[in-house]
Amino acid sequence: MSRLRLTGISKSFGAIQALSDVSLEVAPGEVLGLMGDNGAGKSTLVKIVAGNFRPTHGSISIDGDTVDFHKPRDAQRQGIEVVYQDLALCDNLSAASNVFLGREPRRRVAGFRFLDYSTMHRRSAELFAILKSETRPRDLVRRMSGGQRQAVAIARTLLSNAKIVLMDEPTAAISVRQVSEVLDLIHRLSDQGISVVLISHRMPDVFAVCSHIAVLRRGELVASKLAKDSSPEEVTGLITGAIETA
Amino acid sequence: MTTLEQAIDFSQHRSPVSRILGSQIFWVFAAAVLACLALTLLTDSFATQRNLFNVTRNFAFVGLIAIGMTTVIASGGIDLSVGSTVVLAAMVISVLMSTGYPFWISAVAALAAAAAVGWLNGLLIAYVGMPPFVVTLGMLSAARSLAMVLSNNKMIWEFGPDHDLLLWVGGGSTLGLPHPIYVLVFLAALMSVVYRWTRWGQYVFAIGGNEQAATLTGIPVKRIKVSIYVFSALTAGVAGILMAGWLGSVTTNLGQAMELTVIAAAVIGGANLAGGQGTALGAVIGALLIEVIRNSLILLGISTFWQGMFIGCFIIIAVAFDRIRNLSSSD
Ligand SMILES: Nc1ncnc2c1ncn2[C@@H]1O[C@H](COP(=O)(O)OP(=O)(O)OP(=O)(O)O)[C@@H](O)[C@H]1O
Ligand SMILES: [Mg+2]
What we know:
The complex is a heterodimer. By secondary structure, chain A is α/β, with parallel strands linked by helices. Chain A has helices at about 40-50, 70-75, 95-100, 115-130, 145-155, 175-190, 205-210, 230-240, and strands spanning about 5-15, 15-25, 30-35, 55-60, 65, 80-85, 105-110, 110-115, 165-170, 195-200, 210-215, 220-225. In chain A, the strands form 3 sheets. A 6-stranded mixed β-sheet of chain A has the order 6-9-10-3-11-12, with helices on both faces. In chain A, strands 2-1-4-5 form a 4-stranded antiparallel β-sheet, covered by helices on one side. In chain A, strands 7-8 form a two-stranded antiparallel ribbon. Chain B has one domain (about 50-320): ABC transporter involved in vitamin B12 uptake, BtuC, CATH 1.10.3470. The longest helix of chain B has 27 residues, at about 220-245. The complex binds adenosine-5'-triphosphate and magnesium ion. Adenosine-5'-triphosphate binds next to strand 2 and helix 1 of chain A. Chain B: This is Probable sugar ABC transporter, permease protein. Chain B: It comes from Roseibium aggregatum (strain ATCC 25650 / DSM 13394 / JCM 20685 / NBRC 16684 / NCIMB 2208 / IAM 12614 / B1) (Stappia aggregata). Chain B: Keywords: Cell inner membrane, Cell membrane, Membrane, Transmembrane, Transmembrane helix, Transport. Chain B: One of its GO terms (molecular function) is transmembrane transporter activity.
């Protein structure tokens, strides 16, 4: 049974048809590379699965159950975690606050529930260690390097026991060494049976970790196949439209 | 933690002393204290009990609303309607009391009127997506007009059976401190805790820092925004009730142009108009500095026409200070 199944997903923003009739399946532990030109609709698809947008048409099912997300929290409860394209961080808050943003642990003191900073700091330090990132939980995101910011965004996805992790260009702003850390992490997630959808414009990264590849062109799914049956040349052709479908 | 990590930690986190010296609140507070010392030496009228009583009470009103304003500004918004909310709340309580209603019922009604103003502001800003500046500018006009309609633009100075209670609440003192000061200290302490230790506080700053990120991560941004404008309006409502009691009479020009003083206090106290920054203590100290300036001009016999010049300079200096600090910490 597929972990995530999208059936006939369409999304329009006024006159713009961002996605039309996209159907896609991701198995447990599968790493799917989602590719496409700028504006192809990749981020829109991610936001639909993450509960940020509702699709105009179509349905989503997880482990065979149809779900209908009205807000990001609904998707989080179903085990969906996201690294957003622009990372979605608050510069004025600390790394730990950003990791826990929207689901801060609290401790009851005298009947009131206060933020549990010690847990937040401890847990995020652990996550940064897992990511082999030199990010300190108390530092403000404003003062961080691109790689540290990326670590904060990725650490968020490790907070809960995710079933599906969506990564929208997680390697866009980081060094070669850190890219390989992220790719390692994706392997480890996959080994634990977590499905990963990786969006990236970097062909080598995609072919290094993905078992499946899907290509979007102007909101339409033009290919969805095993990575070993495809090639960077074919995918490039599919993205640009030189190859119609595959 | 290993010693190496500790060493890194130490070099990264500035010592308490340099942190205090780098804080805007400290310098604003120092300026206020300095002005007070100078006035004590230069005049015999400053350090009198009567004058200090007046200063503390006057700044309490601005300080109260500046805490609400700081919350709005920290979330990346602005509330221009607070001055009008002050007069609306003051008018609701005085009209009701003068027609014989008891203090408590009238006060609750006044706060409800203020909350309604904030709620409408918040609704239009969060759900309709209108810019805060425009919405609250419209409300500035509308709320004051409503106060005029309510009172028929007449002055009210008789507050019915609970007349003395109202005057005591707003104008009285306990243990030598005027009552508005108690309210201010309570609110400042409360909000300092709320900002840092609650989800609501965290979300206010998250929205001000990156509203889109807050939305994407599932923070109920719209509901929080409405609550922020309601809170701001409530601080204005409380100030309106206290001012009615302090003045002993309410006219429709109460709180006129107060929004500017309040915004000035918040900004001088370190609230960043770009959003994401501000403290309750800063709001209070910003308000204190403004009141001390105002008072000193009067006592030194300088024309109060200069007041705007001084406050204006302080706003610009405060913002310049912030720029310089950011420059020096980003190298
Ligand atoms: N909130 C929105 N409102 C209106 N139009 C939108 C919105 N979000 C996306 N779009 C439009 O939908 C289309 C697809 O955008 P999307 O961000 O999904 O592309 P993408 O494949 O992620 O591109 P990139 O590689 O540049 O990130 C674009 O035409 C974009 O302008
Ligand atoms: Mg995108």
